[in-house]
Amino acid sequence: MTESGTPGSPTASAREGDRAPDEKTSTATNLAFGVDVGGSGIKGGIVDLDTGALIGERFKVLTPQPATPDAVAGGVAEVVAHFDWQGPVGITLPGVITGGIMRTAANIDKGWIGTDVYELFSKNLDGRKVSVLNDADAAGMAEDAYGAGKGVNGVVMLLTFGTGIGSAILNDGKLVPNTELGHLQVGKKEAEHQASSKVKEDKGWSYEKWTEKVSEVLKTYEALFWPRLFIVGGGISRKSAKWIPLLTNSTPVEAAALLNTAGIVGAAMAVDQGLRV
């Protein structure tokens, strides 16, 4: 259901902060549709692929609880129907997808594990073409093409700092899917168990203390992948001026630019490219 409880009628709270800085209402023709499925909300919109901007406002419904495959697929169908969109649809999910099968499930019902996501969404969207990918991978694609990574050649890495650490790696715009680098062991612990923003909050660390751990993680990623740029996202990226200057790794670090629209934009890019993981 929508946040207002009335299908097709987003409330002010659903729309708050939904307009991207460069969002527009032009007559653009190079369009695609993306849906970003999260633990609390299912958000979608029409994307102008020439600019990465949304056409009009995004639309959001609450993620069903429990967030079972059929219930979430119904929410995705509601978002698509709100725009009367008849074409292909790109969809993000919070988990690893290989061979079209959901392998993990983060902030979503464990019933997703083993689900054929293409069969599920195609059935709920009248058989139309879909692309389904990990949410961090979608955000990485969008940031690399339109955001902080635009114009940067070589390896670009997106890292989202939240409850865990999400990751995406792109090389000259080509995605390496499902990297899950938050689970890489750095020292004696997984990276996300020592450098996520949740750890900072739980331990009451200052930015100085926390960035010591983040720097250690970034230095490990540098030694393995030699990226040209790190892009950092997640809620804490909005306060990037307070902590990015404190980092001691070598690779430049930039805050993500697309904010709440990155997953939608990346999903739209994926279906336009015919991406299937």
UniProtKB/TrEMBL annotation:
Entry keyword annotation includes DNA damage: no
Gene Ontology MF term list: polyphosphate-glucose phosphotransferase activity
The keyword Cytoplasm is annotated on this UniProt entry: no
The organism's taxonomic lineage, starting at the top: Bacteria, Bacillati, Actinomycetota, Actinomycetes, Mycobacteriales
Pfam family, one: ROK
Recorded family membership: Belongs to the ROK (NagC/XylR) family.
Biased composition (Polar residues): 1-12
E.C. number(s) listed in UniProt: 2.7.1.63
Gene: ppgK
Enzyme class: transferase
Keyword vocabulary terms for this entry: Kinase, Transferase
Protein name in UniProt: Polyphosphate glucokinase PpgK
Alphabetical list of InterPro entries matching this protein: ATPase_NBD (IPR043129), ROK (IPR000600)
Residues covered by region (Disordered): 1-26
Composition bias, Basic and acidic residues: 15-25
